[in-house]
Protein: Fructose-1,6-bisphosphatase class 3
Organism: Candidatus Borkfalkia faecavium
Amino acid sequence: MTEQNRQEARLRALRDREYLRMISEQYPTVQAAATEIINIEAILRLPKGTEHFMSDLHGEYEAFCHIVNNCSGVIREKVERLYGQAMTKRERDEFATLIYYPQAIIAERKADKSDDTDWYLVQLHRLVEVCRSVASKYTRSKVRKALPAHFDYIIDELINMDRDDFDKEAYYGEIFTSIIELGRAEAFICAITDLIKRLAVDSLHIVGDVFDRGENPDKIMDLLIAHHNADIQWGNHDIQWMGAHLGNEASILSVVDLSLKYNNADLLEEGYGISLRKLSTFASEHIDDDARFYPAGTDAASASEETRRLAKMRKAAFLMQLKAEGHIIGRRPEYGMEERNILCNIDFAKGEFFGAKLSDTSFPIVDPAHPLRFSAAEREVIEGLKRSFRSSEKLSRHIAFMMQHGSAYKICNGNLIFHGCVPLEPDGSYMNFCGHEGRELMDYCEALVRRAYAAFRKGEEDTEALDFFWYLWCGRCSPLYGREKITTFERLYIDDPAYHKEQDNSYYVYCRNKEFCEKVLRDFGISGKYSHIVNGHVPVRTKLGENPVKAEGKLIVIDGGFCKAYHEKTGIAGYTLIYNSHGLRLCAHEPFDSIEKAIEQRSDIHSEVTVFETRENRLLVRDTDTGKELLDQLEGLQFLMENFRSKNVY
């Protein structure tokens, strides 16, 4: 044996002893180690938990809330399977709505002032059956950890009872009666319906863009924070809000511009406590009436005074945004975005932008001689907005969740999940940004985001990292944006539609090819017949026959148009990708009216389900990422057991 081999052997022995020391502290006896081995082996043989993937929610809270409550149709399936022959359709609709919205249904019955004793007894029995069904794929230990604190013992008893034991049946009947007589039926129903929904979906992946367009992204964020196991792969609109909270001025003004465009001033002022008063005062004094900046869908001929006020505010924010962007571009030549320094590239004398005739040359707060200069009044507006965005307690909680549970991409159970793209050159090679490409570029982007947030948390400002939020929002090499450039200015100021197009990155051509997708997966350390890329960002035009499953099943694009603005384009109202122990299926959701109507009419979102990949053998926990970790633990425990045996310890 060489000296090098002897040294390596000594190091392995030292590592083994240290590992044995640590693991034996946790499992100090043979009995403790053996019990944990039995527990892990049992878990490994259980079916894989169900994962749901959704993307591009764009603030559509009510539709998202309902889909979370019905678990993308999983709850309805359980109800149909258990009670399809025993209940009428109306009764099944009533029962499913009770699971989705228990407090609302109970409140209705209370308003009727009828004796609900029998109704409670029936519902309690049915709910326990549904709960038993969704809990069947988990260990009793895992279910216990999910049980609501005030009813943990009772629910554990009820869902694990021996149904053939007639003496126990009477015992459980007494439990239900006691719950009702003690006035705890409402609380128990709310608790067990929450448990049903928690067990029906083991994990929820949001593939980007909680924010933009829809009026309640804040409520969606609250729902995600309350969820038992949710994560987010950042979208370009999410990063825009994240940058705004950290104080990126271009991001702040862009968020304000888009919020006003979609008539969502209430989201800023009431949702997040961000005052627009100084902006409103400034705009009324310095900005002209301009119909191009009226909120989307506004009839210019009948615009109200409020519409005109919001339009002036939006125009002021947009022009200041162009200045803030110009400053970032000037500081960051590595971005290669000199052509997007809009104000510095306008020929004010000719009224042209790169040779294109401008439809209007009125830029009331822009000095052609010094186009990026902010006046003292503008600085006051911007500083006020910055203070509001940085100090909003609610926005702080939401961005903290984005940072703690979010990432540029995620690798989970053989799937690569990201919002936008892996940026490519036209020849199919990876785009290079500051020496980074492919997976390394995504890691670099995430590292800068986290660096900026770390500085913010310490009360400092990392200018380089903070500027990068704006680049991620609209930069050519941004994996979150995925286009050549953002043409908002051209669409507002140039009539020729040839200047309006936002050219997609070449990724969206190459990703239709199976071999290319397999290469990307390999570059991210993933391989195998059942590996996939899961994307959002680009709406799938289902009504035109476009298939969300591409590249012979290696790519699934799940942006189905949650946002109402996209319904006409896509023909549906969003997708949910479901990955359970049997394989993959896609739910295409029809438009949703409102939660109020769903409760009133006992209606549901109709979802067209397509099963497009079925596994030959049912997936078990041992086949998942968690399973790999458990197998490592199992190997360590077996090593410990061997050590016990070698020392004759039993």
Remarks:
- The chain is about 55% helix and 10% strand.
- The two ends are 36 Å apart (CA to CA).
- The longest strand covers residues 607-614.
- Residues 69 and 100 are 5 Å apart (CA to CA).
